[in-house]
Each structure stands twice: as structure tokens, then as C-alpha cells.
Amino acid sequence: MTDTTAAEARPRAARTSGTVRVVGAGLLGSSIGHALRGLGVDVVLADASPAQLRLAIDYGAGRAAADDDRPGLIVVATPPDVVADVVERELASYPGAVVTDVASVKLEPLHELRARGVDLTHYIGSHPLAGRERGGAISARADIFVGRPWVVCRDGETPASDLALVEGLALDLGATPIEMTPEEHDRAVALVSHVPQLVASLLAGRFVDAPDGSLRLAGQGVRDTTRIAASAPELWVQILGANAAPVVDVLDALADDLRAVADALRAPERPGARRAVADTIRRGNDGVERLPGKHGQNRRFESLVVMVDDTPGQLGRLFGELGELGVNVEDLRLEHSPGAQFGLAEISVTPSVLRHAEEGLAERGWKIASIPS
User: Fold this and answer.
1) What pLDDT score does 95 carry?
2) Name one Pfam family in it (predicted).
């Protein structure tokens, strides 16, 4: 092995050092464990479920706790309804440690801890905006946080060294730390996470009694819209209950919008009805334009759709030939039509290389299904 290869094989230096205790060995907790262990950090796992704990340890997310453990950082990754209890216990058990939690609601646990009179000097609430439809240690991945926002809720009494520990954890896991107040965080996730979950679940719920023939027409658009409807009901009951007021505010506004569109479509020939529908679609266009894209940029990309045979190695060949053409893939979406022997790869590229990519792939024998305007 050359010196260069040996250097590349070694884990990069971590900002996080010493022992990190992770309480809760589910998806997020185990994913944190895997990522930190990949950087050479000592990770101790704890969980109320002995079976879950053993499974996470068997998968390599960390080790079992020992009596002489002295963690400098504790990450609470438990369900939202027990976060306050666990944070209080960990602060009392390890007074020299900084404690953070990764629950998706920040204000309710904070209010509960303050009501109990807990000293919160060394507590910093945080929340990585990452996850998967399936939970548990078996679904954990070390790269789940890469490129994702990680909200850190500090206050005026937070020691700078404590803040550095939590932000260093986020950076080590490949996330982007963003400072917000708990109030700002809970309003934000109501809009971009909690209400979308409900909308996806409500729409997918309409499929339960739909004719099979209707569902056979489903394409990638409806799959994208309802993907998160596969999430665990038990967890979302807790999340939505803990953030009820901001969620209701968004739902009420959304209900008004839906009612206005429904009224317009009840009498589409009425003066102003078509404009109301058009304005709804246009406002959606404007909203999508505000969503940050790759690397947090607001740049828009163009797309081309390539037909890919459903055989091994074809997608790899497509990427390889795009590389030979000097075309960087900004985003990729795959669609498989039921019963078809091919898939559709929708590739996002910068507008300046769209025509070059189309012509180059066509010369190499790829069939371009469409180029959306």
C-alpha cells in the first residue's frame, strides 16, 4: 500500500473526541453511532429495550455501557414523549457532560424541563433533518446525515465550548449546523416536515379503496408525493401531538387554500374561476423556486429523461458515459413502469450542458425519452 493510499484509508480527524454516549439505539441513534465509530470515536449505546440495544451493538453502532464511562457528550435519541425524562436523568447522572437531543420537536421538552427546575446550562436541544421511512437499528446508516441541516437551539447562557461540541458532532456526521430558537424550529418543521407528512398520508389514504385499475396508472409523481406516507404511525402521533399548535396553523391555512380551489372548480366557467386555479399553480411554482437545491443553492436545473434497460450494469454505464462527456449529474430520479423491461432515469443538469448531454448520449446509443421544457 502506498503512502497516499494508506492516508486515504485512515479515517479523517474527528472534531468529536473522548466517549460519546448515545441513548436510544433506533434509526437516528444507531446511525450516529455508526458514523462516529467510522471516525474512530468511542461510542457507548443505551436503550430501554435490551433487544434493540443488543441488535444495535451486533450491527456495530457502538458498545455496551461500563461503570467507569465518563462521556463528554451525550446524545438523546429517544421517542419525543420521553425526551424530557431522559435528558433530566442524563444531566443528573453525568454532570460533566454536555447533553443534546435529536427529537423533531424542541419547545415542548424544553418547557417541561424548565417546569421541573432542571439546570439546563449544559443542555442544548438539536435536530438533524434526516431520516428514513423505516426505523430501528437494522435501518441505520452512517451517511444518513450527510448534506442535511442540523438545527442547534442554543440560548444566551450556553457556554461556547458546549455549543462547539454539538456543532462539531453535526459537522463530523457531514451535516450543516443551523442555529435557531426552539420556537423558530418548531414553526419551521411544522411547515416543511410535519404537515407534508399529514398531506402525504391523507392522499395515500385515498388509495385504500381505489380500484386496482386506477392504481396501475400511478407514475413517479404520485410516488414522490406519497413516499413519506410509509412512516411509522406510533412515532408521528407523538411528534404531531408535541407540535400541535404550529401544525394546526399551517393546516388551517392549507384548508382555506383547498376550499378556494374546490369552490373555483365547482363552477369553472364562473368569471375568475380559471384565474384562481392558475394562480394556485403559479404560486406553487414560486414556492418550489425558493427551495434550496444542491449544496443549498437556489439554482434551477434542466432535465433529460433517458430510457435505461432493466439489466445489470446499465445505470453504471450511463453514469460513466456522462462522466466521459464531462456532464455533472446534479440530481437523479428513477422510475420503473409496472411490467416494463426498462426504467426512466430523469437526470438534472445545468442548462448550459443540456444539449451537449442529449447529443452525446444519443451518439452512444441511449434513447432520450423526453427533454422537459
Assistant:
1) 95
2) PDH_N
Look-up: residue for cell 424550529? 185
From 240, 272, 290, the end of a domain falls on 290
**What is the rounded distance in angstroms from the CA atom of residue 85 to the CA atom of residue 106?**
14
The whole-angstrom separation of Cα 214 and Cα 212 is 5
Tell me the CA distances in angstroms from 71 to 4, 19, 33, 373, one per residue in order.
34, 5, 14, 55
Quick check: helix, strand or coil at residue 129? coil
If one counts the domains in the chain, the total is: 3
Residues 293, 246: Cα–Cα separation, whole Å? 25
84 and 18 share one domain:
yes
Which parts of 135-199 are beta strand (E)? 149-153, 176-179
10-residue mean pLDDT profile of the chain (373 residues): values are: 44 84 96 96 97 96 96 96 97 97 95 96 95 82 93 89 95 95 96 96 96 88 88 91 96 97 96 96 91 58 83 88 89 70 82 88 85 43
What is the side-by-side order of every strand in the sheet holding 331-336?
A: 331-336, 342-349, 302-309, 367-370
DSSP H or E segment with residue 66:
none
Domain end among 262, 290, 318: 290
d(CA 173, CA 22): 14
Q: How far is Cα 156 from Cα 346, in angstroms, rounded to an integer? A: 47
Q: For position 332, what pLDDT does the model report? A: 81
- pLDDT at residue number 338: 59
Domain of 148 in residue numbering reads as: 3-180
* C-alpha separations of 90 from 40, 95, 145 in Å: 24, 8, 24
Helices (runs of H) and strands (runs of E) counted in the chain? 15, 12
- Kindly report the CATH number assigned to the domain that includes residue 354: 3.30.70.260
- If asked whether residues 363 and 239 sit together in one domain, one would say no
User: Would you list the DSSP string of 193-253?
Assistant: IIHHHHHHHHHHHTTTTS-HHHHTT--HHHHHHHGGGGS-HHHHHHHHHHTHHHHHHHHHH
pLDDT at 7: 43
The domain that holds 151 is classified in CATH as 3.40.50.720
Residues 8, 68, single domain; the answer is: yes
